Amino acid sequence: MAGIWVFADNRNQVLELLSAGRSIADGLISHLAAFAADRQQAGEYIDCGADKVFLLPELPQDQPFESLVPVLADAARDENPDVILIGASSRGKEIGARLAAALNSGLCSGCIGFELDSAAKTLKMDRLIFGGAGVQTVVCTQSPQIATVPPKTFEPALPEQGRKGDIHELKAPPPSPVRVLDRVPRQRDSVDITEAKIVVCVGRGLEKKEDLDLVRSLAEALGAEIGCSRPVAEELQWLPEEVYLGISGKKVKPSLYVGVGVSGQVQHITGIRDSKVIMAINRDENAPIFDAADYGIVGDLYQVIPRLIEELKEALRA
Amino acid sequence: MLRIVTCFKWVIDDADIRVDAESRKLNLARAGYKISSYDRNVIEEGVRIQEQHGGTLAAVTVAPPTAKPCLKDALSRGPDAAWFINDPSFADLDAHQTSEILAQTVRSQIEFDLIICGEGSGDLYSQQVGPALAEKLGIPCITWVNKLTFDEEQKQIIAHRKLEEGMEIVSCPLPALVVVLPDINSPRIPTLKQVLGAAKKPVHDVNMKTLGKVPEAHLRTDKILAAVMDRRRIRVAGDAEGIRSVVNSLIREGVIS
Amino acid sequence: MDFKLSEEHQLIRQSVHEFCDRYVCPIADEVDQEARFPAETMKRLAEQDWMGIPYPVEFGGAGADYLSYVIVVEELSRACAATGFILECHTSLASYPLFKFGTEEQKRQWLTPLCKGEMLGAFALTEPGAGTDAAASSTVAVLDGNQWVLNGSKIFISNSPVAGVIIVFAMTDKSKGTKGISAFIVPAGTPGLNIGKHLNKMGIRGSLTAEVFLQDCRIPKENILGGEGQGFKIAMMTLDAGRVGIAAQAVGIAQAALDESVKYSKERIQFGKPIGTFQAVQWMIADMATDVEASRFLTYHAAWCYDQGMPYSKEAAMAKLFASETASRQTDRAVQVHGGIGYIKGTKVERLYRDAKITEIYEGTSEVMRMVISGNLLR
């Protein structure tokens, strides 16, 4: 049977994993399968490269999404996929870990990249350790080789006309003893910072909350969203948790990241390391961020930012 | 009587890690060890629940014998007893091996109602052992919990799960396993009496004789290197000239327009 | 000979370190610049069982060894020398005499609340005219019926503005010289006991130091501590024990100076390189590290002698002498390593420099330490 399977609890990640999965499927000469919530979504996944789509059963209101694990495990035992890629959302991480245990296989969690060894039919997968200071390369010695993949690790697959694929319905899972009593949606008052093309990030170098206005004018001049380092969200609470960037916060991949008064601790850098260009403004020439940046402006942000805004207006007008 | 088991790991203090920039080797020779910070929240949550509902509280770890100092550290934080599952080959276990060893020990020797695990270990951060252990023991698993209460009457737990889309509040009968987030509590600092009292608490030593064969690793580590950030590292002064040159570079690179 | 600290001692050090990161370091600068007594920290120290570390559990203490106490003072002082000193003064100067010389009743009534941290203690020996020359004391105590009446004034009495009880030394028989001094337990609020305003100090500014005035201060007869005429002996023995505590404080200050210097040497770039690559700075760091290590071993050894029940007077004096002079020298070097920024308030080494000096002076000046050590060898 075999197959390269991709699974995620949200559409965006499925599309990203489809593009990664496609390259593995081609390399191993296998088919690519995805899991969809309904036929419409299944159609989209087929357009984006899936050869086969499993339809997830609808769950009763009081069942958590993770109650699907037994169904996924059964399907895997029937079809023996070679590789399973799972989107590393919170739910995805639990599902991945439980699935790996149920199938008595191995799981590379937080896979940030891989190399396919077509001869050995294995994936050499990279993941971060020691808070982002190290990179561990692992190979799963069992089958299926399972990995959870953080959002935006891969580019989303694009639809192509005329693609065909099979759809299979999965049966309902046994009821889980875990019952959902309530769901409280997160208040989305700000734009999703992980979608932003340009991010201006505020660090502890900002002296007071009112000075965020200065940062906002810079963000406006750049067309950027505003994020922050952990202390600004958790301790000072000047900005909401949703926009703090770091190893335990959001990870972003903008074209441009501008750190304003950010010192650049490794936990924060882990959240921004994949930005195309990193720029930093800090008055401390020894701040670690300058080692992690492409462009570093050493100066007092209160003087640099107004000058920067002027230069930007000048240059972008031309 | 509520029997709570908390799992913790003895990890390298990543503040002590030295990096050789050229070879990209990580130098761990002089690194100290500590209880993974996520697991301090685990133990604290166990203590909190025991304070409210009574019962027993155990701290369990899988480690090489050199990790022995971790026991008094863990016991000084509140548990009544510790389980030291140890063998020299336990220095670099993967999540499958750790959860398998824990599962075997729990099945054969540790009675429990509630197992609490951390969101991940401070070193490898696989974030797998908790859910994998639940799966192997055949008990329900609730992950990413930042608020936990025990309903004595119904003998079930109510947990608040923090997910990307918001909070999911769930109930689950015991026995169950819960994976907690650091924001669930603020671990208290052991008092002097707690530190001195740790030596008097029982430690159950579990070794390979009891376990039999060490489970095989399901993940093979090919290499570990220091993470590099290959950046241009161009530095300018904050004057008009310097700023202008940066703006021009950004336009040239096409990141602003 | 085992040079390794026991697991318990390591855990104690770790817990104080965490405590300092959480509660002491964030307010250390403010405590120093505003000369503010960190009352909230005192409460937390009590919750951690650190207010009566070497004293028996039956009197509210933790029943731990002196080395544990030394480690706590060292780590607290490393974060904030004032906080470390407040604890040391309370534990060594106020509680020790009660522990060693108090009756069961006195221990129950006074040592217990001190060990539990329910009240702070102070030790009033020094007078305007009697510092190193303690026998030149002019505070007197006269027995009147079933009360002692105290008259006189004391100066540089730490913790006195916030103490619940003060151990006061007074002359009961001037003709006997030092053998005419007695010790008394004087509760705060006793009529006739007045605490002067706070003295404005160079360093350890979070600790409150004031003059203490006794004007017909009447205390019950039972409040004499030890026998009549035992006061000087009590004071000297108390100071011996206290010296190990001050040595620990000095080690903490010196260690902090070293930590800051190492950090700064790696980060500060001049001539395109971290200054830690220049030999002049490397040698300063090497000397600092060696001296603080030596100070630590002398201090731990003195504490060990105390715990073994061996004589430790000479060892305590050596530890305090060496550690305090190291702290002064080291903090001076640390400011030098930092250059201009080391001179600015808000930079930790600026505070350390001012904090260090007093360790060479109080609880017996370095000159007295030399007297004690040579006296031990040449007698």
Give the secondary structure arrangement, pairings included.
The complex is a heterotrimer of chains A (318), B (257) and C (379).
Chain A: E1 4-7, H1 11-28, E2 32-36, H2 39-47, E3 52-55, H3 69-79, E4 83-87, H4 90-102, E5 107-108, E6 111-117, E7 122-129, E8 134-140, E9 145-149, E10 166-169, E11 179-185, E12 198-202, H5 212-222, E13 225-228, H6 230-234, E14 256-260, H7 266-272, E15 277-282, E16 295-298, H8 301-317
Parallel strand pairs in A: 1-2, 1-4, 2-3, 3-10, 4-9, 5-9, 12-13, 12-14, 14-15, 15-16
Antiparallel strand pairs in A: 6-7, 7-8
Helix pairs in contact in A: 3-4, 5-8
Chain B: E1 3-7, E2 10-12, E3 18-20, E4 25-27, E5 33-35, H1 37-53, E6 56-63, H2 69-75, E7 81-86, H3 95-109, E8 114-118, H4 129-137, E9 141-151, E10 156-163, E11 166-173, E12 176-180, H5 192-197, E13 203-206, H6 208-211, E14 219-226, E15 234-237, H7 240-252
Parallel strand pairs in B: 1-6, 1-8, 6-7, 7-13, 8-12, 9-12
Antiparallel strand pairs in B: 2-5, 3-4, 9-10, 10-11
Helix pairs in contact in B: 3-4
Chain C: H1 7-33, H2 39-47, H3 66-79, H4 81-101, H5 104-115, E1 120-124, E2 140-144, E3 147-158, E4 163-171, E5 181-187, E6 193-198, E7 209-220, E8 224-225, H6 231-267, E9 269-270, E10 273-274, H7 279-308, H8 313-338, H9 348-356, H10 366-378
Parallel strand pairs in C: 1-4
Antiparallel strand pairs in C: 2-3, 3-7, 4-5, 5-8, 6-7, 9-10
Helix pairs in contact in C: 1-3, 3-4, 3-6, 4-5, 4-6, 6-7, 6-8, 6-9, 7-8, 8-9, 8-10
Give the mean pLDDT of chain A: 92
Q: Please name the CATH architecture of chain B.
A: 3-Layer(aba) Sandwich
User: Considering DSSP H and I runs of 4 or more, what fraction of the residues of chain B is helical?
Assistant: 25-40%
Biggest sheet statistics of chain B: 9 strands, mixed
Q: Helix- and strand-based class of chain B?
A: alpha/beta
Please give the domain count of chain B.
1
Oligomeric state of shown chains: heterotrimer
Low-confidence stretches of chain A: none
Q: Looking at the structure, what is the overall shape of chain B?
A: globular
Describe this structure in words.
The complex is a heterotrimer of chains A (318), B (257) and C (379). With 318 residues, chain A is of the alpha/beta class. Chain A has helices spanning 11-28, 39-47, 69-79, 90-102, 212-222, 230-234, 266-272, 301-317, and strands at 4-7, 32-36, 52-55, 83-87, 107-108, 111-117, 122-129, 134-140, 145-149, 166-169, 179-185, 198-202, 225-228, 256-260, 277-282, 295-298. In chain A, α5 (212-222) runs parallel beside α8 (301-317). The longest helix of chain A has 18 residues, at 11-28. The termini of chain A are far apart. In chain A, 51% of the residues are buried. The model of chain A has no long low-confidence stretch (mean pLDDT 92). Chain B contains seven helices and 15 strands. In chain C, β9 (269-270) and β10 form a beta hairpin. Chain C contains ten helices and ten strands. Chain C starts with 6 loop residues before the first helix and ends with a helix. Chain C has three domains: 7-119, Acyl-CoA dehydrogenase/oxidase, N-terminal domain (Butyryl-Coa Dehydrogenase, subunit A, domain 1); 121-231, Butyryl-CoA Dehydrogenase, subunit A, domain 2; 233-378, Butyryl-CoA Dehydrogenase, subunit A, domain 3. Chain C has helices at residues 7-33, 39-47, 66-79, 81-101, 104-115, 231-267, 279-308, 313-338, 348-356, 366-378; strands at 120-124, 140-144, 147-158, 163-171, 181-187, 193-198, 209-220, 224-225, 269-270, 273-274. Chain C has a four-stranded mixed β-sheet. Chains A and B meet through α4, β5, β7, β8 and β11 of A and α3, α4, β9, β10 and β11 of B. β16 (295-298) of chain A pairs parallel with β15 of chain B.
